[in-house]
Every structure is written in C-alpha cells, then in structure tokens.
Model the fold of this input.
Amino acid sequence: MKNRLLPFLCILSLVACTTPVLIPPQTAIHAPHQQPVQSEAAKKLQMAEAKWQQTKPVHYSYTLQRTCFCPREYNHPIEIRVLNGVVQKAMLPLEQEPLPSVRMDEALTINDLFMLLHKAVDKKAASIDVKYDWKYGYPSSIAIDWEKKMADEETYFTARGLRAR
Done:
C-alpha cells in the first residue's frame, strides 16, 4: 500500500506547489497609484514655463550673456530680437556689430533656454540653480553643473531686459 500511495502524494505535492492562489476580486489588494517623483527644480521649471506660455509676447527682444570657460568674446552679451519664436536679429552691443553668422547658434530664444533646463533636469545634472522673472516667468539666471566631478563644464546664462515689441 505504501508503494502505491507514495507516487500519488508526490504528484499531489507538486500540483499544490504550482497551483496559483486566487484572491477573490472583493479582497484583492491594489497598490496605490504612484505619481512619478519630480525634483524641486522640475516643479519650478514647469510652473515658470506655464507662466511664460501665458504671458510671452509674440515679438520681443532681450539681452543674453553666457559665462563660460571659453574665449573672452564668447562671454560678451548678445542682444536678441525674436518674432514668433524665431531669432530675427542678434547683435553684439559692445562691438556695435551683428553676431557673426558662424555663432548664430548662440542667439537663443527664451524657449531655447527652457529646453536647456529640461535637458538638465532630464539628465539629472549635479546642480541646477535658476531664477525666474516674476512678470513673464522666463529664466533670468541659469547655473548648471552637469557633472559634479568634472571641471569647467558648467553652464551659466543671464537673460535680462526683456521687452515686448
């Protein structure tokens, strides 16, 4: 009798181990819906960008100054005129001449500055310090340290004097 009962018990124990336990729907445990965690910088960016989208002029001008570990002339301010989100004119006020065409990618719109900040948040830059304009919401001061242990790769911009045209 023992010889016949042993295979039956072995099969029964295998089935018991592999049979799923069903929880009736009324007692099922549901995990709470979790929102993605947003950094403080991401929250401030989202609020400022929403303000900019509501208040941005169609035609505006402003002065952008970059500070970097690069040749001195790249740190000079640029006066930028924007129409419908496109740079119409970029001038070097200290030199009283247009920004050279090979440097036109330095003439950033306010939307370009927001894109730079989104990139910093998405890439989890080591440090992001931004001040936003109280009236329009655009980033008036940007300091990004992309890599904590790397020297001279920081990004600094100052945007000032925005005027609706």
